[in-house]
Design brief:
Keywords: Aminopeptidase, Hydrolase, Manganese, Protease. The protein is of the alpha/beta class. The protein is 32% helix and 20% strand. The strands form 4 sheets. Strands 7, 8, 9, 10, 11, 14, 15, 16 and 18 form a 9-stranded mixed sheet that branches. A 6-stranded mixed sheet has the order 1-6-5-2-4-3, sandwiched between helices. Strands 12-13-17 form a 3-stranded mixed sheet.
């Protein structure tokens, strides 16, 4: 992974090239104050003051150039100077006349991260950013590492990111932070976690299903469960997806990637909580052993589920994992899942559909998303749609007919496994960026991670 700590340094007055970040509304006044050589350079670069305009500005000597960026991003945005992070020559930089970089250090770091597992990328020396707020460096590096972890895991092909590899990721986290890991695999799931077993039973022995659990922290502290959907590849099962729908299904473990990254942040910051991380990891494969439409599945909670769609498998494995999490009587449960296409139709890629059955937690999450520039959008756990989950032969179905309110009915299914007295939030996230933006390449992406981290840090930080 990129050494993000090498990209940020305390500003002690060392030599550095300046970066002028100018708002479009202030551009004309800024330009009027500049010497003629700067006005000539901006005219030659056709800089008109529109957002995104940029130019190299000459100094008094040939080697004393600086950079101009016209930017309408708020000063608190992580992405304010991200477009420069991978476009400047290697060297050391500081903001020339726009204060401290602050949150923009995150975008500067992430702009220099590349996923290189399968493709060689031309090497560049680091672009180092100076800051007069050295106390922010460590937190920024942690966030960059967590975001890059999500991106890299999601970008990895399913052949290299199966249930065993998710287990290895949890093991590595545990070794780094002194946590313990327990794994229930294969046929051992059949009695304790029958829905996880059913979904994963068609996969090969090497890609057997499993429930991965990590425990960390002082048992006397409040217990927090973080759950992540780990469908390492989703064919749709016997309700098989078309090729276009299967193309990106390596990302269906994106919820697990978010949960692992958030757990890493919790442990690295040593928050005052007792962490219970749960990753139900499966491959929804097709074979003679695949579970079928019409099968009635047992659950850890004791409910029965009529399987009406084998492509609605994520909620099944999450149901068993949530039931296990509840047994520890947690103060808080957060789950992340690439759960429904309906959420994407409603909200697009950038906004995780957020379902919360605790009003205080809902307010915290939404406010944290705004502060962290990691927005969430709340959808209702509408009791009136609960009847859509009725079954003629079992306690409920996993996927109602008709497709109405698909993200909501999926969340209502999960709610069956979480008692009303437990604060619980479900984030239906995309985990994929379909088009690049500065500091945010096309591919795997962390949505909702910083918002959730902001809440945990505020609640359980020292």
């Amino acid at each position: 992974m990129t050494d993000f700590s090498a990209l940020l340094q305390p500003d002690r007055g060392q030599p550095a090239r300046g970066i002028h970040v100018v708002h479009p509304d202030a551009f004309d006044a800024w330009l009027a104050r500049q010497p003629q050589r700067v006005r000539t350079a901006t005219a030659a670069a056709r800089v008109t003051g529109k957002p995104g305009n940029r130019a190299i500005l000459p100094g008094e000597a040939a080697e004393e150039w600086s950079m101009l960026l016209v930017c309408d991003e708020d000063s608190a945005s992580p992405w304010r100077i991200a477009s420069l992070g991978d476009g400047l020559p290697e060297g050391t930089y500081r903001l020339a006349d726009a204060g401290e970089p602050g949150a923009a250090m995150l975008g500067w770091c992430l702009a220099q991260h590349r996923f290189t597992r399968y493709k060689a990328v031309e090497a560049h020396g680091p672009r180092v950013l100076l800051t007069g707020e050295p106390g922010r460096i460590e937190e920024t590096v942690r966030l960059a590492q967590a975001t890059a972890r999500v991106r890299d895991m999601v970008d990895t092909g399913a052949s290299d990111m199966g249930p065993a590899e998710l287990e290895a990721e949890a093991d590595a986290l545990a070794r780094a932070h002194g946590a313990s890991v327990t794994v229930t695999r294969g046929d051992a799931l059949a009695t304790g976690y029958p829905m996880i077993h059913a979904v994963g039973q068609a996969a090969t022995k090497e890609r057997a299903p499993r429930l991965i659990e990590l425990e960390w922290g002082d048992p006397a502290h409040p217990r927090v469960a973080i759950v992540g959907k780990g469908v390492c590849f989703d064919t749709g099962g016997l309700d098989i997806k078309p090729s276009a729908g299967m193309r990106l299904m390596k990302k269906d473990m994106g919820g697990a990637a978010h949960a692992l990254a958030l757990a890493g942040l919790v442990m690295s910051r040593r928050l005052k909580l007792r962490l219970h991380l749960l990753i139900p990891a499966v491959e929804n494969a097709v074979s003679a052993a695949a579970f079928r439409p019409g099968d009635v599945l047992a659950t850890r909670l004791g409910l029965t589920v009529e399987n009406t769609n084998t492509d609605a498998e994520g909620r099944l494995i999450l149901g068993d994992a949530l039931a296990k999490a509840v047994e520890g009587a947690p103060d808080l449960i957060l789950d992340f899942a690439t759960l429904t296409g309906a959420a994407r139709v409603a909200l697009g890629p950038d906004l995780p559909a957020t379902f919360v059955q605790d009003e205080a937690l809902a307010a915290e999450l939404l406010a944290a998303g705004e502060r962290a520039y990691d927005p969430l959008w709340r959808l209702p756990l509408h009791d009136g749609y609960d009847d859509m989950l009725k079954s003629d032969v079992a306690d409920m179905v996993n996927a109602p007919d008709g497709g109405f309110a698909g993200a909501i009915t999926a969340a209502l299914f999960l709610r069956r496994f979480v008692p009303r007295g437990i604060a619980w939030a479900h984030l239906d996230t995309f985990a994929w960026r379909p088009a690049a933006k500065p500091g945010r390449p096309k591919g795997g992406e962390a949505y909702g991670l910083r918002a959730a981290w902001t809440v945990l840090k505020a609640r359980f930080g020292s």
